């Protein structure tokens, strides 16, 4: 098991007050009111706009993000973070066209830059992640809102934090 480390800064270019995390954090509000830059020293992370892993989600791998546009952020609000555990082995995920694993199903073991090209549908209403950790994106080619999906059953799109069923692409999290 590899430890992760992520540092959040109040101001751009790693200035101002900062807060260091080496594990999941459900509410960083008491440490600072805004986050304008991030340095990921180790591990992969998902950072969230709101406490308790709610709101906009952003995947962060090792590197420096001098302002929130560098992680495709919509604003300077980051309130919680989750470290993504390292995964060895296969990746498997099933997507479904209806809630509760109904309708047409397709299984994936690799990245998918365009869900519509494979599944002939823009909407995924439920999903079962059997192996590995995945990031889904609202638009094709890994763009738009991001959703972290760890192993488990997602009976409806709200289970992975989405406001609607639109998924344009997804990829395996293998960047360690």
Automatic annotation (TrEMBL):
Keyword presence, Lipid biosynthesis: no
Example GO biological process: lens development in camera-type eye
Name of a matching Pfam family: Crystall
Gene3D superfamilies reported in the protein's UniProt record: Crystallins
Molecular-function annotations in GO: structural constituent of eye lens
Keyword Repeat listed: yes
Keyword entries, A-Z: Eye lens protein, Repeat
Similarity comment: Belongs to the beta/gamma-crystallin family.
Protein name: Beta/gamma crystallin 'Greek key' domain-containing protein
């Amino acid at each position: 098991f590899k430890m992760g480390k992520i540092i959040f800064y109040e101001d751009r270019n790693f200035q101002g007050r900062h807060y260091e995390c080496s594990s999941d954090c459900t509410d960083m509000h008491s440490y600072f009111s805004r986050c304008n830059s991030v340095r990921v020293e180790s591990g992969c992370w998902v950072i969230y706009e709101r406490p308790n892993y709610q709101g906009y989600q952003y995947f962060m791998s090792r590197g420096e993000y001098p302002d929130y546009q560098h992680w495709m952020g919509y604003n300077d609000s980051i309130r919680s973070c989750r470290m993504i555990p390292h995964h060895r082995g296969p990746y498997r995920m099933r997507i479904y066209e209806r809630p509760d694993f109904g309708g047409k199903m397709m299984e994936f073991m690799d990245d998918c830059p365009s869900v519509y090209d494979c599944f002939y549908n823009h909407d995924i209403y439920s999903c079962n992640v059997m192996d590995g950790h995945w990031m889904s994106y609202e638009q094709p080619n890994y763009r738009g809102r991001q959703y972290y999906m760890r192993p488990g059953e997602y009976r409806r799109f709200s289970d992975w934090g989405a406001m609607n069923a639109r998924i344009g692409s997804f990829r395996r999290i293998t960047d360690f």
